[in-house]
C-alpha cells in the first residue's frame, strides 16, 4: 500500500490511543487527588506527575500566552485545586498541546478524512461524531464541575472506534499499520505512567502503598483485571509487574509489544529481515526474561527506561523501513 | 397521625422481588426503620418551624432551622456551621442551588447507567427501577468523634464475639446469673447444631454493622447490632466514588479518610480464618441468588475481592470437605463468606425444606475443613432481647465500661417492665425480637388507639417475643430536596467492621437519611436515602498548597510524526485552491 497512507493509519492509531490513555490517566489522577489522603505517597500520580508523564513541564500560570487565569496568584505556589484545573485543562482542551485529548482527536479526524477509501464508513462516522461531540460539549464548564463525564465519553468513543475496526475493517496491510500504531502508543503511555509513578527509591513499607497502587490501576483502567488475575491487595511492586509483564492483561506492555510485532510481521513482505520486527522480537524475549527473574523494586526504573528507549528505536525503525520513502517526495528526490 | 410514616416494612431495602420469606437477613436488615421517632414529641405546630421554605433566597442554606430537641450534624443550634465544616458550607453557598440541582440530575443519569438502582413499588404496585438515592451533601465526622465511635464499636464487637463463643461452650455468663439461659435458648436464632464448635481463631462475628444514632444531647447510642449479614458497604464505596465525580469542589481543602479498603480488609480477614492450605486459600462469596435484594452488593464484593460469587448449586460437600464445581472438576473451598441466614444453609441440620442450602455443610464446618463467615449461630448475638445485655457483656467479658450506650430498652418478659410499657405504649417503640428488616415494628406516637390496643394484646400473649425502646431524637443533617435547597432531615449511621486477626473498621459508614420531612424512617424502600460519610483526617492539616512531592523520574517527550513531507503539499493545495 502507499507509504503515505500507511503512515497516516499508523498515526491515526497512535492519536486515538493517546487520547484514550490521557483520559484514563487524568481520571486516575483526579481520583487520587480527590479521594485519597496521601501522607507518604510511594507513587506520585499527582498533577505535576501527569505533566511529567507526557514529558512536559508543569504549567506556570501566566507564562503561557492566553493561559486561563484560574490560578490568579501567579507569584505564590499553586493550590492543588488550581493546579488540577490548569493541568486538566491543558491536557483536555488545549489545542497547542500535542497530548491534549482535543488535539489528538482533531488530528485523528484530519487523518481519517484522507483515508476514507481505506477505512470503513462506519469507522469514519464513529470518529467524526466523536469529534463533533467534543465540539458540542461545553468542555470548559464540564471540566469545572465533573470531568468524569468527559473522560467517560472519550473512553467509550475510542472503544467504539476500535470495536468497529474489529468488526468492519478488512484484515489487510492497512489494518496492520493502524493496529501497530495503536498498540505501540499503548505500550509507550503505560511505560510513561509507570516511569513517573514508580519511586526512584523503593519505599520502605510497601504494603501501605495501597491507595497509590489503586490510583495507578485506575489510571490504566486495569483495576478489575488486576483483582481477578492477582487476587491480592495491590502493592506498587505487584501492580508494576502486572502492567509490564502480564500476558493475560490486554494492556500490559508485554501484550502490546507482542501485538505490534504480529501486526508488523503480517504487513511486512519480508518480516525475517525487517529491522523493527527483529527488534520487537528481541524486546519480547527480554520482557519474558525479566518476568521470569524475580527483580528488585529498585531495578524497575532502569528497566522501564530501557524498555522505553527500545520502543523509541522500534518507532524509528518503522519510520525508516516503511514511511521514509514517502518523505522523499517532499524533498523532490 | 401521619400514616405515611408508619413503617410498612415488609420490603427489602434495595428490594428486588422480595421472596417473602427472604432467606437473607441481608437487604432486609438495612431496611430497618430507625425507631427513633423523636418527633413524636414535636407537635404539628412546631414542625412548621422547620418547614422548608420556598422563598426566593439565593443561597441553598438560608431558612434552615434545626428541629427542636435534635442535634444537627453540620450546623449549631443557631444555624451557623460547626467549625470543622465551615469551608464545606462556604463552598455550598458559593455553588448555589442551581449547581446542586444540576449535579442531582447528573447523579441520577450516572447511577442509572451504572445500574446502581433499587426497585420501588408505585401506587399500582408495579415495581420500577429508581436511581440509588444519594444525597449530595456529605455528613462529616471529626477525627476525634470517629475515634470514640471506633473504640466503642471495637469493644462492643469483641464482647459480642465473646458472647457467641460462650453461648456455644461454657455458658459462663449464664452461670454468673447475668443472662438467663431460658432467654438464650428461646431465641429463634439460637443454633443448637453448632454447640461445642469453636470457630477458627475464636472469631465468629467476622463482619458486623451496628446501627448508631446521635440523640438530642449529642451522645452516640447503639440502636441495634447486626452480626448476621449486614449489608450496605457497597453503597458506602459507590457513594464516595460518585461524590468525587459529582461534586469534586466539595472535597477541596479536606483530608478525608478513604473507604475503599473494605474489600481487601474483608479478603484478608477471610484468608486469616481459613484452614491451612497448600497454596493460598480459596475464598468464595455465597449468595442466595440474583433475586435477593442485596445481590448488587454480593456481586460488588465478589468483584472487588476477586473471588468467585457462588450459589448453592455450585457448592458440594464430599466427606466433610467443601468443594466448588468447576470446569476442571471439584475444587476445594477453604473459606465461605455467606450472605444468607443460618436457617437456610444446610437442610440436614436446619430447615429441611431449604433449597438454597448445601447438604452437609455443617458437617464440614464441624470438621474444621471450611471456615464460614459469619460463623453459624451468631444470630443469637444480634437478637433484640439479647441487645439489652450487651453493656453487661462488655463488663463481664472485657472488664471495661461500655463506651457507647444502648438506647433504654425494656424486656417485656419481665412483668414489672411490661406493666410500665403497656402504660406508656403511646410514647414507646415496640419491636419483635427475632425479626429483621423492620418487620412488625410498632411506633407508639404514630399509632391509633385501635393499633395500640392490638399491639397490647400481642404483647400480653407473647411478652417474650417483644422489646420496647424509648424514642430517640435522631440528629438531622442538611439534605438537598431536589430543587437545590437544603432542609434538615434525620439520619443514622451504620459503620462496617471486619474481624479477622483484629478488628478493622472502615472510617465512616453508611449514613441513611429519611428524605421525607420530619420522618425518622430511613429505609430506602420508604423514601430513605443515603449520604456520603466523611471522617476528617485531623492529623494531616488540610493544606491547600501543593504538598512536597517525592522526586520522580521524567519521561521523554511524546513522539511525533517524523517524516511529514506531504503536509507541505497539502498546504500548497489549500492555498492554490483558495487563490483560484
Average residue-wise pLDDT of chain A: 81
Instruction: State the major sheet of chain A.
Output: none
- How far apart lie the N and C ends of chain B? 85 Å
Shape of chain A: globular
What does the radius of gyration of chain B come to? 26 Å
Could you say how many structural domains of chain B there are in total? 1
Number of contiguous helices of chain A: 14
Please state the structural category of chain A: mainly alpha
Give the averaged pLDDT of chain B, no decimals: 81
Write the layout of secondary structure elements.
The complex is a heterodimer of chains A (333) and B (580).
Chain A: H1 3-35, H2 47-53, H3 80-92, H4 101-113, H5 121-136, H6 139-145, H7 147-168, H8 173-197, H9 210-220, H10 223-230, H11 236-245, H12 253-267, H13 275-292, H14 300-330
Helix pairs in contact in A: 1-3, 1-4, 1-7, 1-8, 1-9, 1-14, 2-3, 2-8, 3-6, 4-5, 5-7, 6-7, 8-12, 8-14, 12-13, 13-14
Chain B: H1 26-30, H2 44-47, H3 86-114, E1 117-121, E2 127-131, E3 134-141, H4 143-167, H5 172-175, H6 181-185, E4 207-209, E5 211-214, E6 220-224, H7 233-246, H8 248-251, H9 262-273, E7 283-286, H10 295-305, E8 308-310, E9 315-318, E10 321-326, E11 329-332, E12 335-338, H11 342-345, H12 361-367, E13 371-373, H13 384-387, H14 390-398, E14 405-406, E15 409-411, H15 415-423, E16 429-432, E17 442-443, H16 449-461, E18 466-469, E19 476-480, E20 486-494, E21 496-499, E22 503-505, E23 510-514, E24 528-535, H17 566-579
Parallel strand pairs in B: 3-24, 6-14, 7-8, 7-12, 12-13
Antiparallel strand pairs in B: 1-2, 4-21, 5-6, 9-10, 10-11, 15-18, 16-17, 16-18, 19-20, 20-23, 21-22, 23-24
Helix pairs in contact in B: 4-14
Amino acid at each position: 500500500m502507499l507509504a503515505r497512507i500507511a503512515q497516516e493509519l499508523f498515526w491515526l492509531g497512535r492519536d486515538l490511543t493517546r487520547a484514550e490513555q490521557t483520559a484514563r490517566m487524568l481520571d486516575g489522577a483526579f481520583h487520587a487527588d480527590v479521594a485519597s489522603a496521601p501522607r507518604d505517597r510511594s507513587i506520585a500520580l499527582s498533577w505535576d506527575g501527569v505533566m511529567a508523564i507526557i514529558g512536559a513541564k508543569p504549567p506556570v500560570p501566566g507564562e503561557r500566552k492566553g493561559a486561563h487565569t484560574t490560578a490568579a496568584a501567579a507569584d505564590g505556589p499553586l493550590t492543588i485545586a488550581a493546579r488540577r484545573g490548569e493541568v486538566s485543562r491543558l491536557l483536555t482542551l488545549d489545542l497547542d498541546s500535542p497530548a491534549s485529548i482535543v488535539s489528538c482527536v482533531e488530528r485523528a479526524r484530519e487523518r481519517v478524512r484522507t483515508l476514507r477509501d481505506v477505512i470503513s464508513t462506519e469507522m469514519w462516522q464513529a470518529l467524526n461524531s466523536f469529534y463533533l461531540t467534543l465540539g458540542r460539549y461545553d468542555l470548559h464548564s464540564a471540566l469545572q464541575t465533573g470531568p468524569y463525564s468527559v473522560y467517560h465519553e472519550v473512553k467509550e468513543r475510542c472503544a467504539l472506534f476500535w470495536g468497529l475496526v474489529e468488526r468492519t475493517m478488512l484484515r489487510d496491510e492497512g489494518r496492520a499499520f493502524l493496529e501497530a500504531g495503536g498498540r505501540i502508543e499503548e505500550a509507550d503511555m503505560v511505560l510513561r505512567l509507570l516511569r513517573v509513578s514508580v519511586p526512584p527509591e523503593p519505599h520502605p513499607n510497601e504494603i501501605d502503598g495501597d491507595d497509590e497502587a489503586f490510583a495507578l490501576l485506575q489510571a490504566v483502567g486495569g483495576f478489575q483485571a488486576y483483582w481477578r488475575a492477582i487476587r491480592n491487595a495491590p502493592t506498587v511492586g505487584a501492580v508494576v509487574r502486572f502492567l509490564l509483564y502480564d500476558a493475560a492483561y490486554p494492556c500490559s506492555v508485554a501484550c502490546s509489544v507482542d501485538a505490534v510485532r504480529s501486526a508488523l510481521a503480517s504487513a511486512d513482505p519480508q518480516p525475517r529481515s525487517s529491522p523493527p520486527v527483529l527488534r520487537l522480537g528481541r524486546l519480547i524475549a527480554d520482557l519474558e526474561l525479566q518476568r521470569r527473574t524475580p527483580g528488585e523494586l529498585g531495578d524497575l526504573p532502569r528497566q522501564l527506561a530501557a524498555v522505553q528507549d527500545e520502543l523509541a528505536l522500534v518507532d524509528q525503525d518503522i519510520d525508516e523501513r516503511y514511511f521514509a520513502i514517502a518523505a522523499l517526495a517532499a524533498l523532490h528526490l | 397521625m401521619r400514616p405515611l410514616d408508619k413503617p410498612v416494612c415488609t420490603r427489602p431495602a434495595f428490594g428486588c422481588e422480595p421472596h417473602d420469606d427472604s432467606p437473607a437477613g441481608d437487604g432486609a436488615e438495612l431496611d430497618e426503620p430507625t425507631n427513633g421517632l423523636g418527633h413524636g414529641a414535636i407537635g404539628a405546630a412546631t414542625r412548621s418551624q422547620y418547614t422548608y421554605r420556598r422563598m426566593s433566597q439565593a443561597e441553598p442554606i438560608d431558612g434552615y432551622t434545626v428541629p427542636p430537641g435534635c442535634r444537627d450534624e453540620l450546623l449549631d443550634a443557631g444555624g451557623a456551621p460547626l467549625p470543622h465544616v465551615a469551608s464545606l458550607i462556604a463552598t455550598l453557598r458559593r455553588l448555589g442551588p442551581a449547581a446542586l440541582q444540576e449535579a442531582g440530575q447528573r447523579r441520577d443519569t450516572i447511577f442509572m447507567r451504572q445500574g446502581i438502582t433499587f426497585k420501588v413499588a408505585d401506587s399500582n404496585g408495579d415495581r420500577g427501577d429508581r436511581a440509588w438515592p444519594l444525597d449530595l451533601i456529605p455528613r462529616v465526622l471529626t477525627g476525634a468523634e470517629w475515634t470514640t465511635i471506633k473504640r466503642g464499636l471495637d469493644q462492643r464487637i469483641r464482647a459480642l464475639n465473646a458472647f457467641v463463643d460462650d453461648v456455644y461452650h461454657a455458658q459462663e455468663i449464664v452461670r454468673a446469673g447475668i443472662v438467663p439461659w431460658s432467654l438464650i435458648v428461646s431465641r429463634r436464632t439460637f443454633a443448637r447444631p453448632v454447640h461445642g464448635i469453636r470457630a477458627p481463631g475464636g472469631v465468629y462475628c467476622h463482619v458486623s454493622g451496628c446501627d448508631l444514632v446521635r440523640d438530642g444531647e449529642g451522645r452516640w447510642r447503639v440502636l441495634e447490632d447486626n452480626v448476621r449479614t449486614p449489608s450496605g458497604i457497597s453503597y458506602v464505596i459507590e457513594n464516595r466514588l460518585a461524590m468525587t465525580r459529582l461534586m469534586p469542589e466539595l472535597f477541596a481543602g479536606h483530608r478525608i479518610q478513604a473507604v475503599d479498603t473494605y474489600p481487601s480488609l474483608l479478603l484478608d480477614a477471610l484468608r486469616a480464618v481459613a484452614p491451612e492450605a497448600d497454596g493460598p486459600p480459596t475464598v468464595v462469596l455465597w449468595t442466595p441468588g440474583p433475586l435477593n435484594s442485596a445481590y448488587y452488593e454480593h456481586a460488588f464484593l465478589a468483584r472487588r475481592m476477586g473471588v468467585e460469587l457462588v450459589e448453592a448449586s455450585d457448592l458440594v460437600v464430599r466427606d466433610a470437605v467443601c468443594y466448588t464445581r468447576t470446569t476442571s472438576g471439584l475444587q476445594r473451598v477453604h473459606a465461605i463468606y455467606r450472605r444468607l441466614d443460618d436457617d437456610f444453609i444446610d437442610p440436614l441440620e436446619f430447615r429441611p425444606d431449604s433449597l438454597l442450602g448445601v447438604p452437609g455443610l455443617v458437617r464440614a464446618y464441624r470438621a474444621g475443613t471450611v471456615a464460614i463467615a459469619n460463623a453459624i449461630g451468631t444470630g443469637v448475638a444480634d437478637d433484640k432481647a439479647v441487645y439489652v445485655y450487651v453493656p453487661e457483656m462488655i463488663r463481664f467479658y472485657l472488664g471495661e465500661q461500655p463506651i457507647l450506650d444502648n438506647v433504654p430498652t425494656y424486656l417485656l418478659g419481665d412483668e414489672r417492665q411490661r406493666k410500665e410499657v403497656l402504660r406508656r405504649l403511646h410514647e414507646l417503640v415496640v419491636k419483635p425480637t427475632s425479626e429483621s428488616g423492620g418487620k412488625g415494628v410498632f411506633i407508639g406516637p404514630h399509632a391509633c388507639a385501635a393499633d395500640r390496643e392490638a399491639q397490647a394484646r400481642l404483647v400480653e400473649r407473647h411478652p417474650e417475643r417483644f422489646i420496647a425502646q424509648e424514642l430517640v431524637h435522631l440528629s438531622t443533617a442538611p439534605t438537598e430536596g431536589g430543587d437545590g435547597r437544603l432542609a434538615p432531615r434525620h439520619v443514622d449511621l451504620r459503620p462496617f467492621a471486619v474481624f479477622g486477626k483484629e478488628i478493622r473498621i472502615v472510617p465512616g459508614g453508611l449514613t441513611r437519611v429519611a428524605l421525607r420531612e420530619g420522618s425518622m424512617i430511613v429505609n430506602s424502600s420508604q423514601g430513605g436515602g443515603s449520604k456520603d460519610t466523611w471522617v476528617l483526617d485531623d492529623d494531616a492539616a488540610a493544606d491547600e498548597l501543593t504538598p512536597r512531592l517525592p522526586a520522580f523520574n521524567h519521561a521523554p517527550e511524546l513522539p511525533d510524526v517524523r517524516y511529514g513531507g506531504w503536509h507541505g503539499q497539502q498546504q500548497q493545495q489549500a492555498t492554490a485552491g483558495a487563490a483560484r
